[in-house]
């Protein structure tokens, strides 16, 4: 990284909506807390949480340009809600000078996840879902309670995937096969 947290915050304020900026701050705080709980680098987690949605509000032409530099998987080309994750890797590298592969991977997979996520990737994925600034308590509370149990991180992630799959079914939307595979992997891990 070749810039300060103040620079990043100012850049995010200028390039995100107010709510998305608040969400980014919340994700950063939550990522730091989870990193402390699981013995990982708290400042690295905070930084990653802060920039995880850096591409969320890109204008269409800039999003298209960033996506042209990415490899999309699992129907991502058809799902504009997830485009910001791969595009975020491009922005993190170019705008903030990020070279840490663990940070870049956590940004890349914070929306759909992937099989065999690292502990760091899981923390950023989960922090994005349960941060307290913009996520409703009725959604996050059942997930955060699971963190206190044995194998709680995987149980919390499993519940996130369960909610996602139910929502997709309820809305009659396509479910990526990777989502099902990740759900099954997590289910096995907690059994």
Task: Note the main attributes of this structure.
mainly alpha; 191 residues; Hypothetical protein af1432; 10 helices
* Alpha carbon gap, first and last residue: 39 Å
CATH topology of the domain at 5-135: Hypothetical protein af1432
Quick one: CATH class of the domain at 5-135?
Mainly Alpha
Mean pLDDT rating:
93
Q: What would you call the shape?
A: globular
How many beta-strand runs?
A: 0
- Rg computed from alpha carbons, rounded to a whole number of angstroms: 16 Å
The unreliable regions are none
> Looking at the chains present, what oligomeric state does this protein adopt?
single chain
Write structural notes for this entry:
The protein contains 10 helices and no strands. It has 191 residues and is mostly helical. It has a domain at 5-135: Orthogonal Bundle (Hypothetical protein af1432), CATH 1.10.3210.10. The mean pLDDT is 93.
Summarize the structure.
With 191 residues, the protein is mainly α.
Protein topology:
Layout: H1 5-15, H2 18-37, H3 42-51, H4 60-67, H5 84-96, H6 101-108, H7 119-130, H8 137-146, H9 152-170, H10 177-190
Helix pairs in contact: 2-3, 2-7, 3-6, 5-6, 6-7, 7-9, 8-9, 9-10
């Amino acid at each position: 990284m070749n810039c300060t947290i103040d620079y990043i915050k100012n850049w995010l304020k200028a390039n995100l909506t107010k709510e998305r900026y608040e969400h980014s701050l919340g994700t950063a705080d939550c990522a730091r807390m989870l990193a402390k709980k699981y013995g990982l680098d708290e400042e690295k987690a905070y930084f990653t949480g802060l920039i995880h949605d850096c591409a969320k509000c890109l204008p269409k032409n800039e999003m298209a340009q960033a996506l042209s530099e990415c490899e999309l998987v699992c129907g991502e080309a058809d799902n504009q809600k997830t485009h910001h994750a791969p595009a975020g890797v491009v922005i993190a590298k170019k705008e903030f000078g990020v070279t840490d592969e663990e940070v870049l991977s956590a940004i890349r997979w914070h929306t759909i996840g992937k099989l065999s996520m690292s502990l760091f990737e899981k923390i950023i994925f989960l922090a994005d879902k349960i941060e307290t600034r913009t996520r409703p308590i009725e959604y996050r509370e059942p997930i955060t309670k699971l963190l206190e149990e044995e194998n709680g991180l995987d149980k919390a992630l499993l519940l996130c995937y369960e909610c996602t799959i139910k929502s997709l079914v309820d809305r009659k939307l396509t479910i990526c096969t990777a989502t099902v595979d990740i759900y099954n992997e997590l289910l096995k891990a907690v059994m």
